Amino acid sequence: MAIGQVVLVTTEPLGGGSPVRSVYYVAEQDPAKAEAIIAAMMAPNERVEAWGPLPEPAVKALGLKPGDFTRG
């Protein structure tokens, strides 16, 4: 059972060029809520999308509490 989400952040460089992607692991089961947690700290040129479920063993291995996140 998944109790977290993998969230992908795509940053479009302001000066042009290739986008940069970052992965975050969020201890939130609901994809929309996980996106909102990460989007709250992102800039306007960054797109946030829930990419898929994060299984409970992974959340525990990362030491995440409900609502916490870490960058991958």
Core attributes:
72 residues; elongated; alpha+beta; 2 helices; 4-stranded antiparallel sheet; 21% helix
Report on the structure:
With 72 residues, the chain is an alpha+beta fold. The chain has one domain (2-67). The chain has two helices and four strands; from the N terminus they run ββαβαβ. The longest helix is centred in the middle third of the chain and has 9 residues, at 31-39. The protein starts with a strand and ends with a strand. The model has no long low-confidence stretch (mean pLDDT 94).
> What low-confidence regions span 5 or more consecutive residues with pLDDT below 50?
none
Mean pLDDT: 94
Q: Topology as H/E string? A: EEHEHE
Q: What is the overall silhouette? A: elongated
Assembly form of the protein: single chain
Count the E strands: 4
Number of helices: 2
- How much of the sequence lies in strands comes to 35-45%
Structural class per helix/strand content? alpha+beta
Total tally of structural domains: 1
Fold topology:
Layout lengths: L1 E10 L8 E7 L4 H9 L6 E10 H6 L7 E3 L1
